[in-house]
Give the backbone structure.
Amino acid sequence: PLFVDFTAEWCGACKKMAKETFADVDVMKRCGSFVAVKIDATNDEDPQVKAMMEKYKVVGLPTVVVYDSEGKERKRFNDFVGAQDFLSALEGIN
């Protein structure tokens, strides 16, 4: 399984997720079975950043897209999500 985290230096909700959600011990344990990719979209004028945002259909930040091991999108977050809600969303994704 994979999750892709789109973030930016200017994104307050992204910073809150980094500090409160992704730093949570239980989230870190659960995410150990995932490939985690972090996309820094601070410079959204960069052609590579634009291409990644288009590929993953990102319209705002933060965006976290979760895929199962078959490559199927299973969950998408388009705003801050707390640790418990994030963990609940990952249940059953292998």
